[in-house]
Amino acid sequence: MDLSTQNYLVDTDWLAAHLDNDELRIVECTSLLSNYFEDSAADGLVLETGRDLWEAGHIPGSAFADLLNDLSDRTRRNFMYAMPSAEQFASVMSEIGVGAGTAVVLYDRGMNSFAARVWWMLRAFGFDNAALLNGGWNRWVAEGRPVSAEPPSYPKARFEARPRPELIATRERVKAALEKPRAGLINALDPDEFAGRPPQRYARPGRIPASVNVPFAVTVDLGTQLFPPDASLREIFDAVGALSKDEVICYCGGGIAASTTAFLLTRLGVDNVSLYDGSLTDWSSDPTLPMETG
Question: 10 and 133 in contact (C-beta within 8 Å)?
Answer without folding.
Answer: yes
